[in-house]
Design goal:
This protein has 162 residues and is an alpha+beta fold. The chain contains four helices and eight strands; from the N terminus they run αβββββαβββαα. The strands form two sheets. The chain has a six-stranded mixed β-sheet with strand order 1-2-5-6-7-8, sandwiched between helices. The chain has a two-stranded antiparallel sheet with strand order 3-4.
């Protein structure tokens, strides 16, 4: 399922060139190519131009940003983390737009280490590309107020009535 249109717009804004960056890497928001791939993150950065073949990335990107769907947050945080870890993505940022939280993971010895869990605020830099930063204050301000995922039923609501 494609991400919410407003979340795609946020990813595109994050992918916009940063004026202070002289990075040779290329950033692509979700939907940048029509090819079917094993994974289509909301944003990816590839620094090795040999991995890009006709707008298709062959091999692991250097950086992936995945925006969690309110309905699939646990899926994105567990399954996607494992998928990108196994693929060898050097840095993974998982964003929860409802809670406005960022989980940053860096690949070390073929396993992710969680290096930050923080509010979507400020201008953090990528660990793999320190000259590339994200203006979360600007990007998060454009997000709509999304409804939170429904809470699971309480124990009292699930007990049989006598």
């Amino acid at each position: 399922m494609p991400p919410h249109p407003d979340l795609r717009a946020m990813a595109a804004k994050v992918a916009a060139p940063q004026p202070r960056t002289s990075c040779p890497c290329a950033g692509y928001p979700h939907g940048a190519d029509a090819a079917t791939t094993a994974a289509q993150p909301d944003l990816l950065i590839v620094c090795d131009s040999n991995k890009i073949h006709r707008k298709v990335v062959r091999g692991a990107p250097d950086f992936v940003l995945a925006v969690a769907s309110p309905a699939n947050a646990s899926h994105d945080h567990l399954r996607e983390r494992r998928r990108y870890e196994q693929a060898g993505v050097r840095e993974l940022w998982l964003v929860d737009p409802v809670e406005r939280v960022l989980w940053a993971h860096n690949l070390t010895d073929a396993a992710y280490a969680t290096v930050a869990v923080e509010e979507l605020a400020g201008t953090p830099s990528l660990a793999t590309l320190p000259k590339v930063s994200v203006d979360w204050d600007g990007a998060a301000a454009e997000l709509p107020s999304l409804p939170a995922a429904p809470s699971p039923p309480t124990a009292a609501a699930t007990e049989p009535q006598s």
